[in-house]
Structure formats: structure tokens, C-alpha cells
Amino acid sequence: MTADRPDATQPLTGVRIIEISSFVAVPLAGMTLAQLGAEVIRVDPVGGAADYHRWPLTADGESIYWAGLNKGKLSAAIDVRSAEGQELIKRLIADSGILITNVAGRQWHSYDNLVALRPDLIHVEVSGRADGGTGVDYTVNAGMGFPLVTGPAGTADPVNHVLPAWDVTCGLYVALAVTAALRHRDATGDGQRIGIPLENVALATAGNLSFLTEAMVNGVARERIGNSIYGQYGQAFTSADGASFMIVALTGRHFRDLAEVTGATKAVAALGDALGADFTDEGQRYQHRDALTGLFTAWFTGHTADEITAALSATSILWERYRTFTETAADPKVTDNPLFSTLDQPRIGQYLAPALPLAVNGAYRPAVPSPALGDHTVEVLREWLELSDGEIDRLTDAGTVA
Question: Where along the sequence do coiled-coil regions lie (predicted)?
Fold first, then answer.
């Protein structure tokens, strides 16, 4: 790569971003932007925000969670309650021209307050709800409908999923919003005020995936179907030695291979004749999924996990063995994957950490360690705001920065 040719994996080099955040959505957005080359400074209160010691922790009490979502950032610890601390942060935001935050409703770092300091400001604020109310992933999810269609058929109680899907989706929307606003600013010279309510992210996704539209158009709510896949044939099976597999047959070829490998081709044809069903149609495979599963189950329960793995590997069937996180962490999909590289994370130790999951020209940039709280406070104040060492010492002695 020549000195005057930009690095394709770092398109945001030269962009500075201030992040005021906690938990998942905005930290994920900041990390993603940092992985794309931006210089992201996470500004936290002295002592840390609510997620600085969030579980999981090491035996020494260091947050593995914090390390995971703040890779590649700089960290400044500033007293966010004092007038002097707020003034420092506002100056940092004005210098960078971009703020991403989920600390909503704070007038001192609102768009209206900051735009007077930086007219082309890009201000992205994540809130819980569009009406200004609070909300987190799990409370937003409760109001969507997903917990009442998750879990085994016949279950009456709601079932939460473990993945904070709306936080993750929202964080990527924030990163997208910043890159789009930068393009707009480069073209027009104008900044933007962008609001992203977490609840709206969930609502938009539920609508785009037809969960809400189905209820509007057909007047029915999605049913609970356990480990089946709505509208397709997909089911979990257990081997003779207790291993579980997820099997998915999206196409006619997948389904034919499934019938053949399980020795059920003739039985499937006979079932179709008896039911008057056409199993070349994915909808009919779904409608008669329980009967079909009965035909396939005997083969799975009669074979070991290794035998099933060998047989399925020779087919077009979409499948995977259910694994624990511990098993996945030791699997070649992690240990031999160029997405992961060994990261020497201070206070945590060495482990395989993922890069941004975009292979640019066939390559991934290795993960960069996360900072400790306040690691870069002096550096940021000196280089960004051009404060003297004496001024920084005074702020430190006063407890305004740490």
C-alpha cells in the first residue's frame, strides 16, 4: 500500500467521534466505527458508567463485557456533573463534530445546545421510545410479541431470548447513520440531528419481517412452533447418543436429500398420497411438519452424532449440531478463522477476539485492545483541546478529570 493511497479497510480514517454511552447499542456502534478507522473517544463519568463493571467478570473483577464492546477506542474520564467537566466534553464534541449517545435527555449535550458550537454537527441520539420514554432491549421486546411466539407449542408463559437483538440492530443502525450523515456533510456542508428510538428499531424489524403485517392483513398472530421454522421445513432432532441437530430443508433438493438420507423416500411419498399433499410445495411441507418429522425421527435416534454428521455432510441439507459457547470457542470455526486473532487485553489476558466481520479484499484487520477507564484522558485533553500540563494537573487535582 502506497503512502498516498487510503487503506480500504479503514475508510473512516481522520474522522473523530465522541461517544457518551453505556450497555450495548451505542458502544457497539462506536466500536464498529472505530474498526472502520474512526478515532472514537468514549467519554465516561469519573468512576465509570453503569456498564464498566458489568458481568461477565474475570476472577479479579475486571469486566469481560466492557473489553468486548470497546475494542479500539480511546477512553476519557470526566466529571459529567460539574459545569467545568461538561464544558470540556462540549469542547471535545465541537472539535470532533460527531456525537453518538444513548444518554438521552441531557440538555447540556443536546443537539440544540451543541449546534451553536458546531453548526455542521452530526448528533445521533438513541432513546428508549419515540415518545421520550425509557426502554431497554428486554422491555422493548416484551411489547413486540416475540416472547409469546418463542418456545414450545402449548407454552402459556412468555419466553425471552438471550440475544439482545434490538440493541445489536440499533447499534448497527447508529453506525450506518453516522456514515450516511458524513457523506451528506461532505456533499452539502450540513450536519444532521438523528434520533433512533430502540422501540422503533424493533417495530421496524417486526414489520419488515411480516410479523406485524401478518396480523394486520390476515387478522391472526403467529403461533408458537418450538424449534420448527415458520413456512418451511426445519426441525431439531436428537441422536442416539444425545446430541442435538438442527435440520433445515428450504428447497426441493434439500427435502429430497433429507428423505433419502433418512431412508424415508417411499414413506414420504405414501404420506403425501394419504394426505393429498404435494411436498414439492414448501408451505405444505410446513403444514404437515409433524407427520414428516415422525418419519425422519427414527433415523436420527438410531444413529450416533458422528454417523449423522458423516451422512449429512454428503448431502445438500442445511444442518448444524447444537453446541455450547464453550464448544464453539474451541471449534475450528473460531480457532482457525481469520476473523479471530490473539488479543493481549490488559487486565483480562490473552484470548481470540473477533475483528469487524467484513473481509475487505480478502483480509480482516486484527482486533485492537479495549482501554481502561480514563487511559487517554490526558492525551485527549492535550492533543484535542491543546491544554497545557498545568491546566490538566489542575483539572485532575480538582477531580474534574481522571
Answer: none
* Nearest C-alpha neighbor of 206 from the set 147, 292, 155: 147
373: number of Cβ within 10 Å? 20
pLDDT tens across 141-170, in order?
A: 999 999 999 999 999 999 999 999 999 999
In tens, the pLDDT along 32-68 reads 999 999 999 999 999 999 999 999 999 999 999 999 9
| Residue 289 forms part of a structural domain | yes
Question: 10 in a domain, yes or no?
Answer: no
Cis check for the bond before 56: say yes or no (omega within 30 of 0).
yes
CATH of the domain at 248: 3.30.1540
Of the candidates 167, 273, 306, 393, the residue annotated as catalytic is: 167
CATH of the domain at 38: 3.40.50.10540
- 187 domain-assigned: yes
Strand positions, DSSP E, 174-285: 192-197, 233-238, 244-249
Q: How far apart are CA 254 and CA 260, in angstroms?
A: 10
Amino acid in position 149: V
Neighbour-count burial for 139-148, b at 16+ CB within 10 Å, e otherwise: ebbeebbbbb
| Same domain, yes or no: 257 and 137 | no
Could you tell me if 285 and 316 lie in one domain? yes
Is 241 an active-site residue? no
Residue carrying the nine cell digits 490473539: 342
Q: Does 350 lie in the same domain as 307?
A: no
How are the residues of the chain apportioned to helix, strand and coil, as percentages rounded to the nearest 5?
A: 40, 15, 45
> For the chain, how many structural domains are there in total?
2
Tell me the DSSP string of 43-68.
EE-TT--TTTTPSSB-TTS-BHHHHH
Domain residues for 316?
233-321
Over residues 267-278, the pLDDT tens digits come to: 999 999 999 999
d(C-alpha 19, C-alpha 33), whole Å: 11
Q: What is the 3-state secondary structure (H, E, C) of 99-138?
A: EEECCCCCHHHCHHHHCCCCCCCEEEEEECCCCCCCCCHH
